[in-house]
Amino acid sequence: MAEASTRQRVTPPITDSVVGGDSAVTTGERASGPLPTARSRRRYRIVLTVLIVLAVGFGFGHLAWDNPMPLGSEGFWLVAELRASSLVAMAVVAVCQAIATVSFQTVTNNRIITPSIMGFESLYVAVQTAAVYFLGVAGLGMLTGLPQFVLQIAIMVGLSLALYGWLLSGRYGNVEIMLLIGIVIGGGLASVSSFMRRMLTPSEFDVLTARMFGSMANADPMYFPVAIPLCIVAAALLWWRSSRLNVVALGRDTATNLGLNHRHELMVTLFLVSILMAVSTALVGPMTFLGFLVATLAYQFADSYDHRRIFPVAVLVGFVVLSGAYFVMKHVFYAQGVVSIIIELVGGSVFLIVILRKGRL
Predict the structure, then answer these.
(1) Is the dihedral of CA 179, 183, 188, 194 positive or negative?
(2) Neighbours of 119 (CB within 10 A)
(3) Contacts of 325 by beta carbon, 8 Å cutoff, 6+ apart
(4) Per residue, what are the HEC states of 184-222?
(5) DSSP string spanning 288-305?
(6) pLDDT per position in the chain (361 positions), as tens?
């Protein structure tokens, strides 16, 4: 006992497995921050550079591939200008889906669920189906136009605000109940849409089916003056609130102890998320698993808790996935209409893999 009491306790030096960096190994000092080591900072810059190169490459390939006019001529740029609208739509959808999904998963403290669970896409499908059911094929034509586009966004955001305000401001309101109500509403709208589709004629059903899959062909350039400012403002506000999202990610109790009004931050973030999701869905249609696929890859590539590092990676991954899939399916397999189906298939497979690896929601 005397020998044990006189034995000195020695704290072992910090190793690479603890802090994960080259500088920490050589100096033995502790490090903190979103990218604490030189190795992590170098890796982040490499990932960002590779994604930028891929995004520029796919974007230029989309403009120049099969362009019948000589490169750099006036005719070349006229043809490229006609194709540029689809690139603008991809950029808007990438920003909306990426930032909305990452922010939504942060405030709900769950990296599996996405904003689609709140019923945005079910509402979009219900509106499109009801138009054909009550007005015939001409009803879809009545839903096209800038006023109708603004009205769809207003309905989606309005329903979201009503849901958040009702469920999060009550005495027993919490995020879990809000998500459960969202699932129930989404399931109910999907059932009503399915019933109305069974009552359609074959020709009406065929026309409606083409609108049920997300496609860049659905994005009318006349919507851009409304969609782009809404996307930029909502994304910029979430970017500006990145430090608050970092605190919210610690959980409600920790965030409250650090002096943050957790419920206020939750409602503001969900309001901005609803704007981004409404713009994306009304512009190109449902993209169920795109946000989940982009957010999951962004967490792996960024390898940081800081949302100011995750957001750029997520947006670039979203644009690379959309433009890459669109370029390959259009110019290699000549099947641009199935781009959303391929993305849904890959995203759904990743979702199942994540579920099986984690073993829980």
Answers:
(1) positive
(2) 25
(3) 339, 342, 343
(4) HHHHHHHHHHHHHHHCCCHHHHHHHHHHCCCCHHHCCHH
(5) TTHHHHHHHHHHHHH--S
(6) 444 444 455 555 444 444 444 444 444 455 667 777 888 889 899 999 999 999 999 888 888 887 777 777 777 787 777 788 888 988 999 999 999 999 988 988 878 778 776 677 777 788 778 878 887 777 666 767 788 788 888 888 887 777 776 666 666 566 677 777 777 877 888 888 888 888 888 887 877 777 777 777 778 888 889 999 999 999 999 999 999 999 988 888 888 888 888 888 888 898 898 899 888 888 888 887 788 888 888 888 888 888 899 999 999 999 998 888 888 877 777 766 667 777 777 777 777 777 676 655 5
Q: Please report where in the chains the tokens 């083409």 appear, as a residue.
A: 210
* Contact in structure between 193 and 125 (CB atoms under 8 Å): yes
What H or E segment, with its residue span, contains residue 119?
none
For residue 1, give the H/E element and its range.
none
